[in-house]
Specification:
Layout: H1 18-33, H2 38-52, H3 66-71, H4 83-88, H5 107-111, H6 137-140, H7 147-161, H8 173-187, H9 191-208, H10 214-233, H11 239-258, H12 272-291, H13 300-305, H14 308-311, H15 346-365, H16 370-378, H17 380-383, H18 386-393, H19 397-409, H20 422-433, H21 443-452, H22 454-458
Keywords: DNA-binding, Nucleus, Transcription, Transcription regulation
Biased composition (Polar residues): 12-24, 100-112
Biased composition (Low complexity): 25-37
Length: 459
């Protein structure tokens, strides 16, 4: 667009300088091409700045959302949706981990009937894990529509109607109601418990329907969240979360025992990690129980009151000897000639361990309910001394044989999904590991495990 300057336009005032004349000309041109409003003048200046001004440098987003990194713009990393994605109305995907990430659905996930379930995570941050224990249920979690919400609803539903019925002591109505009704309520105000529920439910679904292999990844995600957030929360144990923390520990212990079915056994090593995990939970229970000792409404007390030591004193360690398994001790007969003295410091370690195995065997012979037998077997790492754990860690033959007898007792519970074929796998692996002089002592564990193994009985 060309503008014609009138010939009679004064280029210089009578009393002004040439510079003032040029200034007047510039002002006239500006007035001819713009309106007189300050708003439009501001818009013009802003437009010129955006068009011609240089792009300012910024620190690159290493943990920003996928879209901001692709556009090479600064991401404010707000969760669950950053500022730019919110402004453009697009999906905000955080695919790089820092603290506790949040992953929203991408367009490809919405169009795909089978999204990558192993990448499902929940909103929130590592720093707010403790706060999640005391917030209201609605603000504790930030749900996303789509597959994640569906999966979590499915897992919670399955826990209440299926998984909770398989736990130790669930044959009692009070324990059954506690796990299926009260524990989910506690989970709404204690995020680690909710994560643990999702993890154990996903594992149970996978064991029940092995064709749904994606559940392995789902379980791994929630288990990692449960462990990490639980570790943070128990550091500041309070009355409100103490009850839920106890149930979280129990779920994590059951999950750990269920995982024994999948551990590699080619070069046998005892399950020390599981045993140490069980022993380490004692400190959490002690802290939690001390925090709620005055509370009569704590749900964990219903679990404690129904434990075997409270219900039947006949089969406790203090009233049992090693009668049925005395041949495992270094005494006349089998133990003779193995180089160990009767007064060896190991003797009492072996005796107390064998006595507990004998007490479990007596309970099985008395046809105690399998759910109660599970509880006896689960606390085995707590009953035995730390010295026994050291002996099996050092691969002592006698300690390994005693451990094989313990696993053989769990063979009677092979129909319980989280026990499964662990007994047969562990006993066979120990039999391949111990020296030849212990072959005779391994006959009972091998026979017992094989007789209850579904694979062996079907073949």
């Amino acid at each position: 667009m060309y503008l014609r300057i009138p010939a009679d336009l004064p280029l210089q005032s009578a009393s002004g300088s040439p510079e003032q004349g040029r200034s007047a000309t510039t002002q006239t041109l500006r007035e001819a091409t713009t309106t007189d409003t300050p708003q439009n003048q501001g818009k013009s200046a802003s437009h010129a700045y955006k068009k011609n001004g240089p792009r300012l440098a910024h620190r690159k987003s290493r943990n920003g959302c996928q879209r901001c990194r692709a556009r090479r713009v600064k991401c404010d990393e707000a969760r669950p949706v950053c500022r730019d994605c919110h402004r453009h109305g697009v999906a905000c995907v955080y695919d790089r981990s820092e603290g506790q990430p949040h992953t929203a659905q991408t367009k490809s996930q919405r169009s795909s009937p089978h999204p990558d379930r192993s990448k499902i995570v929940l909103a929130g941050s590592h720093e707010t894990a403790t706060a999640g224990a005391t917030t209201a249920p609605c603000s504790c979690l930030q749900w996303e529509s789509g597959y994640q919400a569906y999966t979590e609803l499915r897992l919670l539903h399955h826990f209440t109607i299926g998984t909770s019925l398989t736990f130790p002591g669930a044959h009692l109505q009070s324990i059954k109601d506690c796990w299926s009704i009260e524990v989910p309520k506690l989970a709404f105000v204690y995020r680690p418990l909710l994560y643990a529920i999702f993890a154990i439910s996903a594992l149970h679904l996978y064991r029940s329907k092995s064709n749904e292999t994606d559940l392995i990844g789902v379980r791994a995600v929630y288990l990692e969240r449960a462990l990490r957030d639980h570790r943070v929360c128990v550091g500041s144990m309070g009355t409100r979360i103490a009850d839920a923390a106890c149930f979280t520990c129990i779920l994590l212990l059951i999950d750990a025992f269920a995982s024994l079915q999948d551990r590699p056994l080619e070069s046998y090593r005892p399950p020390i990690e599981w045993m140490q995990l069980v022993r380490g939970s004692v400190s959490v229970f002690d802290a939690a129980l001390s925090a709620i000792q005055e509370s009569k409404s704590a749900r964990i007390f219903s679990i404690i009151r129904s434990s075997p030591s409270f219900t039947n004193q006949i089969f406790t360690v203090g009233t049992c000897d090693c009668r049925h398994f005395s041949h495992l001790l270094p005494s006349e007969g089998f133990g003779e000639g193995d180089g160990e003295q009767l007064l060896s410091p190991k003797l009492e370690v072996y005796r107390s361990t064998v006595a507990y195995i004998n007490s479990v065997w007596l309970a099985i012979e008395a046809q105690e309910h399998p759910a109660m037998i599970c509880r006896r077997l689960m606390v085995f790492p707590l009953i035995v001394s730390q010295d026994f754990l050291k002996l099996i860690q050092e691969m002592e033959d006698r300690a390994l044989v005693i451990l094989a007898h313990y696993f053989a007792l769990s063979a009677t519970l092979t129909d319980i999904w989280w026990v499964g074929h662990t007994a047969h796998r562990e006993v066979l692996a120990i039999a391949r590991t111990v020296s030849a002089q212990w072959v005779t002592s391994m006959s009972w564990p091998l026979t017992t495990a094989a007789s209850h193994c579904r694979i062996c009985t079907q073949s």
